[in-house]
Design goal:
It is built from four helices and two strands; from the N terminus they run E-E-H-H-H-H. It is mainly alpha-helical and 97 residues long. The chain has a two-stranded antiparallel ribbon. Strand 1 and strand 2 form a beta hairpin. The termini are far apart.
Length: 97
């Protein structure tokens, strides 16, 4: 099955996320070995993007839920747990011990 986002084909899960977000994943997750200065710049850029797109977190959550539902529907098949009846303490009225 091929997945397209905005007319572009996503060939990997990372590419799918990048196309859905419109930004590279590294912007949000960081990269190993980045300096404090690089981290601060990355976080500033992320804050600017969120300020310009206040609904981005909701959109990301929606896209993630749709992807999970499409590719792993068994994750949404929730079976309610059976609740055991509460045990009542035995009444000792009238019983001689």
């Amino acid at each position: 099955m091929r997945t397209y986002i905005g007319g572009q084909q996503a060939v990997s899960s990372i590419e799918f996320v990048e196309l859905a977000l419109g930004t590279p994943v590294e912007l949000w997750l960081g990269v190993e070995g980045e300096s404090e200065e690089e981290r601060a710049a990355r976080l500033d850029a992320a804050r600017d993007i969120l300020a310009d797109n206040p609904y981005l977190p909701d959109e990301v959550s929606r896209v993630a839920a749709e992807a999970i539902e499409a590719y792993a529907p068994e994750l949404f098949n929730v079976i309610p747990l059976v609740r055991l009846a509460a045990r009542r303490p035995r009444s000792r009225k009238g019983a001689a011990a």
